[in-house]
Structures are given as structure tokens and as C-alpha cells.
Amino acid sequence: MDRQHSEKPPSHATADGTSSASSQKPRISSHISESTKYQSYMKVPRNSARRDRQTHPTTILLCKSRSSQAALVPKEHKTFMEEAYNAAICFKMLRDLNGSDPVRLKHIIKKIKNMAHRAPNLVLETIHDYFVDNLEIPARHKFRLFHVLQAVIGASESLEETWEKTFIQLALENMTKSTELEEAYQDAASHVLVAICRHAWRVVAQHLETEVLSGTFPHRSLLHVMGILTSNEELFKEGEKACWEEQLAKMAVKSVQFLNTEGWSKELLGALTKPDQTHQEQPLEKAFLFIYYGLILQAEENGTTVRTHLRALLETSHQWPKQREGIALTVGLAAARHLDHVWAVLEQFGRSTPIKWSLNSFSPKNAEDLRWKWASSTILLAYGQMAAKAKVHILPWVDNILSRMIFFFHYSSWDETLKQSFLKAILMLVRAISRNEGAHSYEFSQVSELLECLMLLIEKEPQDTLCTSTRQQAIHIISSLCKLRPPLDVEKKSRLLSISLRSVLSLPLLEVLEKHTCLFLEPPNIQVQPWRLPRFEQGRSGRRLAALRGDDCHCGSRHQGRCSPLRPRTRLAPGAMAKGREPLFTEHLLCARPSVCIRSPSQQRPDLRFRPPPQAEFRRALEGSAAWVGYQRRTSQLAPPGSAAGSQALGWGLLFIRIPCPPPPWQGAGSSPVLSCPAGMVGGPSWAWRELAGVQPSPGSAQDTGTTALSGRRTQPSLRPAGAWPPPDLLHVPAQSLYNKTSEALDQMLQSLLVQNPTADELHFLLSHLYFWLASEKAHERQRAAHSCVTLLKFLSHNPHLDPREDFRRIGELVGMLGILCQDPDEATQSRSLEGVGHLYKLLMRRRGEALQVQAPSAKQLSKAGEDGAPLWSDGDQEATAPSPQEVVLSKDHVFQPGSSPGIKEIAKHLTMAELTDLIRTAVDGLGSISPFRVQAAADLLLSVVREHGAKLKTVANLGRAIHLQLCSVRIPQAKGKALQAITLLARNHTPELVAAFLDFSIPLNSHALRLWRALGAERPVSRLVLSALLAWLRKRPLPTRTAAGSPRPEEEAYLRSVAAMNTLHELQFAREFKKAMQESYPELFLALLTQMHYILELNLPKESQPGKEAQEVAVPSPQSCRTALEALRSLLSTTGHWRDFAHLELQRAWDLFTTIHTYPQGVGLLARAMVQNGCGQVKALIVQLLPRLQSQEERERKAAILLLTEFLYSPTLLEVLPRQAALTVLARSLRDPSPEICVLSLQGLGNILFHPEKGSLLRGQLPPLLDGFFQSSEPVVVRLMRTVSDVLHRLGPHGTEAQSLGIAINARSFFDDQRDAIRAAAVALFGELAAAMAGRRLSGLRTQVRQSMVALLLHLKDSCPAVVTQAKFAFYHCSVLLRWRPRHTLFCTLAWEKGLSARHFLWSCLISHSQEELSLHWAQALSYLHSRHHYIKTWAALFIGYTICYHPQAVSQMVNDVDMKLLFCTFEDLKNDPEPGIREFATRQSSFLQKVAARPQ
């Protein structure tokens, strides 16, 4: 057809143009000047111009010749000729619209639109003339003319009345015609009428009213136009939409008469129940008809008629979502006037048999049953529409409506459809209530039950997917319900917050959500076809796609490797193709390939020159569609079509979706490809989503008039009546956008709750539910919680709802949380937390009434980019925008910076003491986290706050206990060190409080508690204070009393702390931090521990704990406390350099004397005696300390002091501290002590030789008779005499027994080998006491006796009597001290604790090395013990001889004789049968070695 037109002579175009110009009725003169400008835009683009020159060469030449000729005539004639020429050109282009070349049609339409923008009246006149001159225009050609006419009218700024009437008539005539294009043709004519509405909607409305009220049911196209007018506000100027609605209501009133007309009503119901082409989108005419039907029922006066029509409507099918929404809308509109009747109809319908049958257990048996499956959904929506349309009359009905909604919620067969209907209905109801000013005076009893339903609904949402907006809608509804009366109780509000926060914040990462995104709630008409990209091959030209088979190309051509491997697929609109006609639709693919083949039916060969359109053109092409499409890789990399990533992606699947849309700019008219895209695009945040999501066409606009340009395919702009829910999208909303909206709903709910109760307690209540998520171990949960928290703070910062005079009592906890999150490894969380700190600082300053200066943050401060260049607030999980300068509050430069603590320090300066305490407690709680960053951040925060404000803290004791509880879980050495450092800083000003607190967990004292104690005394001045505090608690020793039931009394807390102080002092004796303080405080510690021993014994603890007495176990410690007290005293001596005193008692096993209350005085006296004999340097300091204790209120302290004093009277340093007369006065005063025991001890002290020197000679005179009594036959008498001699030695002192020492030594030695164990032990003990008393004296005779006794003492270490062994150790040690052997400490340790051959060898080596000249004497003594009756002594003598033979064989060979040799051989042969393996082996070796020694020459 194009070719035929192009072959006509140029004069034909001119004649046509002249004829049309002369025959026009209204002459257009106002646009002559505009037509002269048309020369500039008549040029055709380069590609199309080339084709125009080939097909229309004469036309272009005519244009040039006409222009040159017009310059020679007068101006008026020139203008007339230009107008005639342009009209002819326009006429020619209108005729060429009947062609089939899509590229050419595209350019023709573009040129006509350009001409219309400059000279719209000229084009309108030409179109009118074309219709007049060509009465037989094909339907397809007329369809395109209507599209052009619509665009031209839309581009016109005004429309003359003549044109209005003319084109209104033209549209009305063609709107009802039946053609091969069916509804597409009618809609094209209808959209011309819509375009006229922009200029004269009242005129159009009048024509519509005439047609609608004609008595016959309106044609579909009329309803289509009215639907557009109802749904599109852009067609009207300000205020005109209300006028149209008013006129529509009047039309409804006039249409009431038709309700009783059977034919009209039947056609109405048929139109409403007519199946739609797609069940996701409803035709505009049908959507409008539901509205119009509702308005008619609303205007009906007769309630019976209303009930009849509503029942008939409700008995139709409820299978499809748009049908259910339409029915509900009609019911709601009718309820605006007939609320009672509508309620009765719904109640009757809800109790009908089909509804009861569909509830709970619905199992459809055939397709007819499906019409009732979702009837409950319709009822719910109807209740919602009732509330939305009834407005002020709805309040008394709210509880009834809610009760019915809750009923269907609980008893319906639950699915996604019913869930969405329930939410939509509730949302409409809540909005209706919120718009009613009287709602605040009502109390809605069903709100609580409704909240339970919503919470249950949120809980049932899958926690690993986010496919729908259910959470968002439910939370929005909850936000509105919280504003109603009665207010929520605290428990329900807490549950509500917990459920909502968990449902949103615990969702997986968005990458995971994208993978689990479901496609559709109700799938549209889709076809899934698997698609596989070809493999990559390496060729000469580099990497390229493998060649494809020609029959795999969807366009049918054999251009291998240049097209997607898809077979051709063609879709035709119903009835749009007759035999021999062209198809109107062809489905193509926007490939993810570098080149795309798009083939229309009119093309003989595919156009392979085409490249994928740029992003902007692709967007413009999809703006008019009912949905947008995108794609993404199935892995994680997103790429736009045509990119390298898109062309190289493997493993795709394609989802081809049939979407009506206008032809894209890169495609010509005549064939409209239906866009198809990979399924991977669905639901992902692809390259086109942010620009295309939510874009909807404007019906009647130049870009989209409701009909696909030149294709005949109708699009359905969505009609959203008031209160109706938007139709669901064909494609799924991306998880990113869906989550953002859900998060916004959650934030709005928090803000709503705070606005309802604007108090600091409410703020803390809300934040306390967020704290759990702020401390989450998952980074994305922390990020989301931080976002919600900061959003709430920002809301408060910008909207001062809280009273600034109100105290933020728990704000310190929030500061601590944000302070920790400021060091979060997630940069988005860190940035958000920093922003929150800024808002919090602003709130604090507002509360303090101080002037706050807000300074905009620099880019370096808040938007430091990461390695990938992304800002700190964008990490892929939540698409947050960068905080604006107004959103971040800074008080000074570089204070609020990511990862730094100055911001928290600045805020901490303005916190009260209670808030500081909360801040520190939050930091301490963070130490218990399993997240390493959180532990480290909490430790940093704790140390920072304590360093700045530790001196003024009040509740330090609780803080110390909290740190102890968390310290055991800290696994990071640096964090643990900082926590302990904080304790060290706190100890500077709060030592007593911390000591008291630490004592509570020092029974028993574990390693973590010990580390705290060491940190407490890390600084030397503080360590002295710690010991002083411990001693003070140690002195608080109340005896625990019990009630009849056995429960402890309150004063036992002090008792327990006293025991804990003892435990702590015991452990701290080994800590290097307290070493110096222990030495300096030795006198106080010594006296305190002695007194503590007596206190423990006073408790009369059982030897073993008795089961079943829990109360007693709580009241008193275990028997281990006695052992601990004794160990504390022992370790005090050993760790402070007083090991000699310790050895004196250890070797005698005298520590057991401290284990009973009766032997306690003996043990104290023995310890004091050891200190005197060893010349302890602390005796003078102890005397100074014990004198005040003699006046103590506690008997146990006076008792310990008098025991020590009576022994210290023998010390030569006593008189340096206490003169003799003063000592007498002190002892005399003690005679008046209430305790008889203390009086006796004082009396013994007064009898000391210090005060009675004449006693010395008397005692020395009694020694010879006592020594002679040793040889009596009575064993008890001999033992008693030996003990008496020991006591005399003690009373005389070292200087009083020098003359008698030799005789005492000789007499004692004579009983070393006595057969009687007691006498043997007493003799060895006397010899040891003598050696101890004479230590340091140069007595040659005594020293000789001592040297000669060493072998006997050494061998008696293996005596069969334990008492002899003990006394032998004591005597051997003090003899070695007298002989000045070295090393003394090692010798003491060996004697005290070492056993076995190694210990025996060490003692032998000490003896031999210090007495080489007495080797022969030792040899002889050892040989004599080989005849001993005691096996162990005999064995030990053999070992002694064996060591001597091994190490001194030459000397032995000179000393030994034949008799001795025989004795040795016999002894070693006997030892070969010893039960101890080591001795048997030793005897075997010694026998062989002895033979070698015997073989040597003498």
C-alpha cells in the first residue's frame, strides 16, 4: 500500500491539500505564524530520510520548488501557500498510516506529533478533512488515525468548541462499532473522547449522561470512558474532580429507575460477572461498573430492593481477586446509606450453607466449587468497605464488624488470599476510624482480640522468606490500633513489640531473601520455557559463543550465532486475525546477548543490525506496560541486558511473560512485540527497578492513551477507587524494597507508641525491646536494630514530644549500647550508631536547657568509603541513604566520628550519676558477649568512662560484682586486661566498697576473683589500703547464731565476709602486687590470723559436713575454713621471709596444735618461742601491735596477745620496746581480765625470770639431780624428767645453761638407741631443744657432741616410731644450724617433705661434705647400726655405708677389716630380698662393688 501511494504523481498531493484547505469550515488563521516555523522540524532523521528520498523523490523536490516560488509572490499569498503545503504534507502522512512498514510508521507518527506540537489546529483540521474525504477507511487505518488524533488533542493547549463537537460526535459514532479489531478499536475511539475531556469534560460528561440514561444498558466503551474519568485525576483541573463525582452521583440517582427493569439489571449483572482476560488486572469499564452499581444502590430508597440486588451480587463467583474487590466495593458504597440493610445481607450471607461449607475444611470437588472457596475473603473486604464508606456512622458498628472479621480469621480455611483480604479489610476499617473525629470518645472492646489475631498472623509468617507485604500491612494496622481506646496494657504491648521486632529484624540477609523470594500470590498468564546459553569456545578472534543451529533461532532465520536460541512464538488477540490478515502481536525476547533479533511478520528477513536499547529507551518502552520486567543472574551478579556479564551468564532460566505495552522507540508500527524476559529478573533489585517500580501510565496522555500505539492491544490503567486496595503486581516486589517498607512500618509503630505515651519511661520501654537485637551476634540484625533505634531517636530529635524537664533515668543504657556499636565491624551499623549518638546528644542538651550548636559533618567524618567505594551506610543488606547534615548532631570538631570514643565521652559529661551507672553496667554486660568485637568495644567503653568519671561513682560495689560475673566469659586477653585496669582505676577512690563487694565471691576464691584482687592492688598505695580493708573485715567476727528452724541470722553476713577475708589474704600472700604490702603489714597480719584461728575454732566446726543441713551449710563454711586459716598463717611466715620460724614448727609437726581449741595456746607459745630463738626481726613490731590488743573487747584477741607476750619476755629485744616496769604493769592489769585463762597466763608471765633473776641459780641447781634421774627404770618418769629439763632450758634462756649444756647433751645421746620408743623420742627432742637454744654459741664441747650425734640422728629418720622420726628431723635440722651447714633452706625442705633414695643421698652428702675428718667415726657408727633390731634403721645404715663405699672407696679400703667386710656382705645379701625394688637393686650393685673394693690391696 505504501508503494502504491508513493507512485502517484506529486500533483495529487497538492490537489488533495488544496481541496482540503478550501473545503474546511472553520478557518484557522491564528496558527499561520506557527506553520511557518514547521520548516525547521520537517527534516526527517538521517536513516529515514534516505528511504524517503528513494520512495518519494518528487515530494521533496516539490517542497523545494514551492518554497522558492513562494518567495516571489506577495506575503499573504506566501503564507497561504505554506499552510496549504503543510496541510498537504500532513494529509499525505495520514494516508501513509495505512502502510505496514513498522520503521516507516514510527517516523510518520513522530512527524505528525511534532507538527501537532507546533500547529495543532492545522493537524486537527487535516484529520477532520481526511475523515470527511475518505468515508471508507479500513478499521486498522482508522485505529491508527484515532491514536494520532488522541495525541494531537492531548498536545493542544486549547480546543475550539467546533472541534469539540465534531470529534465528540466522531468518537461516539465509532466507540460502539464492531470491527475486526474488536475492543481495541472501540477503546481507541474512546480515548479520543478522553483526550477531549482535558479541554471540555463537562460537554463530554453531558453526552455520556445522555447515552447512559437512554434506557438501554450502556455500551462497554461508554463505561470505559467513565472509568478513566473516575480513576484519573490528571484529566481535571483543581476542584473539577469533585464536580465530576457529584455529577456521577446525580447520574446514579437518575439510574435508580433501571434497577427494577429486568433486562437492564440482567445485563448489569452479566457485565459484572463477565470473565476478564487476565485475572490480575480488571478492565476499567468493569471496575467503574462496580462503583456505579454501588452508587445506584446507595441512591435507592427501597431497602428491599437493595437487599435483593446485594444478595444476587454476592451469589456470583468469588474465585478471582478483582471480582471479590469489586463486589466488596459495591457493598461498601451501598452501606453508606443503607448500613442496616447491608449488615443484614452480609450476616445472612455469612451464615448461608456455602459459606459454612467453605469454612475450615474446604475441598473443592469440581470447578464450580471454586466460586465459593474465597467467599470469606469477599465478606471481609465488604466489611472493610462498609467502614470506609459509612464514615461517621460507622463508630457504633466497629465492635460488631471486628467481631465478624475475627470470626472469619479464626474459622476460615486460611491461605494467602484470605490473609490479604483480612489485612485489607482491617486497614480500611482502621483508616475509617482514624478519619472520624469522635473515635477518641469510644472504647472498642474488640481491639484487644484483633491485636491477638494480628500478632498471630505475624508469628505465622515464614521467618526465612519475605515474599509479601503481610508484615508491613499488619504492623501498619497495629500502629493505628494502638491509638484507640482502651490503651494497651504493658504485658500485651511487650508481647506485641517482641513479636514485631523478631518478625522483621530476624529475617535473613537480603541475599538469602532474594533467593527464597516467591514469584506470585496468584500467578498470571505465564509460560515457562527452559533456556540454556551455549557454551563458550575459544576461537581465533578470542572468546566467543559457539555457533547456534539455524532452526534454533526464534525468528526462523539461519544467521548462526547471532540470535537467542528460541523458537518463534506468536500471540494473537482474540479475533484480531482473519484469514490473510496480519497478526497484531508477536512475542519477542529482550535478550541478555550483545545482539538481538526482532522479527515482525511483515519482514522477510530479520533485522540483525539492531542492538539492545539503552537504559533510558528501555524504561520509556516499559512505562506504559502493566508491569515491568528485569532479570538477574541465578548466582548473585546482576547485569543489564547487553552487558558482558549478562552475555556471559550461564545457567539461566527464562520466564516469558505476556505483557501488553506500547511499541518501544526502536520498533516501528504494525507489529507490537510482547516483551519477554528471563525469570531471574523477577523480584531482584535489578538495573531497572529503581526507575521503573511503581510507574503507571496516565490514561489519555500523549504517551499512553489507554491503547497500545498502533497495535490494537489494550492496556488497562489501574482503577483504584477510594478505600480499595491496589491491585497486586504481576511481578514480585524486590526483597530490598519490600524489606525497606516493612522496616519503615516498624519504625512508624515505635513512633506511634511513643506519641501515645510521650514519657521517658515509655521511651525506655521501647528501647529495652531493641537492646536484645542491638546485642545480637548477627551483623545484619544489629544493623537493622540500630537503624530502628536511630530512627526513633531522630524522630524525637526533630519532634520534641518528650517533656524536656523529665528525667531520662535509663538513658545511660542506650548510650552504652550505641557506644559499643560505634565500634561495630559493620560499617553501616557503625555509621548509624554514630548518628544516633548525635541525636542523643541533642536530646540531652535540650533536657539540660543548654544552647546546642549543630554543625554539619564533613564527608570524611561520616561517609568514609570502603574498599569498594560504597559509603559507610550502605552494605548490601539495607539500602540506606547517607545521613543528611541535619540528621547528625555534632557538638565540636571530630567528636562524633566512627569507631572513636570522644562522642561518648562528651555525652557522659552530661549524664547524671544514675545514668552513668547504667552506662557502665551496659558496658559490663557487653563483656559477656560471645562476639569478639563487642567484648573489646565494651572493655574500651568501660575503661574510658571509668577513667573520666570513676571517682564520682556511687554504686561501685555492684559494678565490681558485675565485672566479676562477666570476667569468667571473657576470652580476649586485651579486653580482660582493660576490664581489670578499670578495677585498678576504681580502687583509687573506692577501695573499701570494692573490697566488701569482692569478699562476697571469695568463698571459695577462684582464678577470676583472684585476678580482680590483684588488679585491685596493682598500685602500691592501693595495695596497702586493700590489706587494711581486709584486716578490718577479718576483725568482724560475730559468732553465727541460729533460730529453732536452723536458718541463719542476718549478722552472719559479716561472719562470711570475715572468712572470705581470710581466704583472700591467704591467696594474696603469693601475689607479687601485694608482696611489699604484706611485708610492711606483717605484724598486723600475723596477729589477725592468729586471732582468726581462734575464731574458727570457737565455731566448733564438725570434722565432716553433715548432709541434709542446707541451712547450716549456708550459715557456716565447711571444715576447710579451719585448714585455710592455718594455711594462711603458715604461708604468711614462708612468703615474708620468716621461714625459720615456719621450719621450727613444721619439723615438729606443731601446726596440728592449732586445730583444736585446747591445744591452741600451746601452738601459739611454740610459734612465739621459735621467733625468739631464731631472733625474728618483727618481735619488736609485734610487741607494739599486741599491747593495744590486750585491751580489746574480744577475748580471743586478748588471749592471743597475752600468749605472745609471755613468750616474748624471753626475747632480748623486749626491753627496747617495753621497759621492765611497763611489762609488769601490763601483766598486772591482765590479772583483772574477766577470762580465767588470761589471768593464768598473766600470772605465768609475772613469774618470768626477767622479773626474778634469782630463779636462774635455783633452776641451774636442779639440773644435776634431774639428769641423774634419766637412768631410772620407770619409763614415764624418765620421759617426764627429760621434758622437765627441756622446760628448764626454756626458762633459763640461752645464757643460763651454757655450763650444763655439755652434760645435758651427753646424757641425752646415751638414750638415742634405747629400746623404749617414748624415752628414745624424749631424748632426741631434748637434744634438739638444746641445739636450738645453743644456736649461735661457740661451745666446742657441745659442738663435738653434736657432730658425733649426726649419724645417729640421720639413721633415726627411719625409726619405727613416728615420734622419734619427728624429733630426729627437728634435732638434725637444729644441729646443722648449730654446725652452720649450708644450704639451710634446702636442708629444711628435704627433712620436712622429701622422701626416697634421693632425699637420703642428699642428707648423706651434706653430712659427709661438712665432716670429712670424722669419716672414720661415721663409718664406725654406721657399722654399729647394722646390728640394730629395727629393720629400717639397719637398712638406712647399709645405704649410708653403700654411699660411702661408692664415693670414698679409697678411704673405705683403708678403714674396713675382714670382720667388717663379712658383716657388709651379709647385710647386702639380706637387702637383696628387701620388698622395695630400689633397695634390692642398690644392694646388688653394692655387693659387686664391695667385692672390687675388697680385692684392692690394703
Nutshell version of this structure?
The protein is an all-alpha fold and 1498 residues long. 60% of the residues lie in helices and 2% in strands. It is built from 69 helices and 6 strands.
List keywords for this structure.
1498 residues, mainly alpha, four-stranded mixed β-sheet, two-stranded antiparallel ribbon, 69 helices, 2% strand
List the helices and strands and how they pair.
Layout (H helix, E strand, L loop, with lengths): L1 H5 L3 H14 L8 H5 L9 H10 L1 H14 L4 H22 L5 H17 L1 H14 L5 H17 L5 H15 L7 H30 L7 H12 L8 H16 L6 H12 L10 H16 L3 H12 L6 H15 L3 H12 L2 H6 L11 H4 L1 H16 L7 H14 L4 H19 L12 H14 L9 H12 L8 H16 L4 H6 L10 E4 L6 E4 L2 E4 L39 E5 L25 H8 L21 H5 L5 E6 L12 E7 L10 H4 L42 H22 L3 H15 L4 H20 L12 H11 L5 H22 L10 H4 L39 H7 L4 H14 L5 H18 L6 H12 L5 H27 L7 H10 L3 H15 L17 H17 L6 H6 L1 H17 L11 H6 L4 H16 L3 H9 L12 H14 L5 H11 L5 H14 L5 H4 L2 H11 L5 H11 L8 H7 L1 H6 L6 H18 L8 H9 L7 H17 L6 H16 L6 H17 L5 H10 L3 H14 L4 H10 L6 H17 L1 H7 L2 H14 L5 H19 L3
Parallel strand pairs: 4-6
Antiparallel strand pairs: 1-5, 2-3, 5-6
Helix pairs in contact: 2-6, 5-6, 6-7, 6-8, 7-8, 7-9, 8-9, 9-11, 10-11, 11-12, 11-13, 12-15, 13-15, 15-17, 16-17, 16-18, 17-18, 17-21, 18-21, 21-22, 21-23, 22-23, 22-24, 23-25, 24-25, 24-26, 25-31, 26-31, 26-32, 31-33, 32-33, 32-34, 33-35, 34-35, 34-37, 34-38, 34-39, 35-37, 38-39, 38-40, ...
